[in-house]
Amino acid sequence: MKSYSVYILKCSDGSYYTGITNDIDRRLYEHQNGENITCYTYKRRPLSLVFFENFPDVNQAIEFEKQVKGWTRIKKEAIINDNWNKLKELSICKNNTSHTNYIKP
């Protein structure tokens, strides 16, 4: 049965790259060896795999990849460090202008 992996790479500049693949070993090889000069990771090698999650359905994997790509660095680091329970707390808006924090003058 085919599976799909959503992965996060830590780049040499400290940034994170999130991707999806049906062959994690091949995809990591391509990233590490600069197979695509237009890829975000090309000038940020060497890279290290810091997270991956497998999905049996490509649509689930695509949905999760899109979600993770929209996350802040701190949320990505929460799942990298296996702190899934922190995600809800990190999703709460803490801006003074948020309706939950607004104080009437």
Automatic annotation (TrEMBL):
SUPFAM superfamilies: GIY-YIG endonuclease
Domain of life: Bacteria
InterPro entries noted in UniProt: GIY-YIG_endonuc (IPR000305), GIY-YIG_endonuc_sf (IPR035901), UPF0213_domain (IPR050190)
Domain GIY-YIG, first and last residues per copy: 2-78
Pfam annotation, one family: GIY-YIG
Family from the record: Belongs to the UPF0213 family.
Name the record gives this protein: GIY-YIG nuclease family protein
Species of the source: Pedobacter polaris
